[in-house]
Write a structure and sequence with these properties.
The protein is mostly helical. Helices cover 72% and strands 7% of the residues. A hairpin with a 2-residue loop joins strand 1 and strand 2. It is elongated, with a radius of gyration of 15 Å. One of its GO terms (cellular component) is plasma membrane.
Length: 117
């Protein structure tokens, strides 16, 4: 799941900055969406089998991807479909309510909205 979300993030960034032609950029955006759908599929399967473990998977820090979490990768990639998944929403609500969001995600709320720490 982390790898798919990281691939989505990288491809979206490349489409935004590195594509020389619009066709190339569109192909990268389509591929980014493909990886996002795979991440959704993996999370959905995990969530169906064990909701609690799926929640832990969202916030587990991955050393392979720069000490970040799946949830943070999805937010940074602007993977709206992944973040909109009902299981992800439940996880976010529990994080915000528990006060763990700043530590776990590296984000915090301020008067200006959501900021990266």
């Amino acid at each position: 799941m982390s790898a798919a979300l990281a691939a989505s993030k990288i491809l979206k960034k490349l489409a935004e900055e590195g594509a020389e032609e619009e066709d190339e950029a569109e192909e990268m955006r389509e591929l980014a969406n493909h990886y996002e759908r795979h991440a959704i599929g993996v999370f959905s399967e995990c969530h169906c089998c064990d909701e609690e473990r799926a929640q832990r998977l969202l916030i587990r820090i991955s050393s392979s991807w720069g000490q970040t979490t799946c949830l943070r990768l999805a937010l940074e990639a602007d993977d709206k479909s992944f973040v909109a998944h009902s299981g992800v929403q439940v996880g976010q609500r529990s994080l915000w309510g528990s006060g763990r969001s700043k530590v776990t995600l590296g984000f915090r709320w301020s008067s200006n909205g959501l900021n990266c720490c």
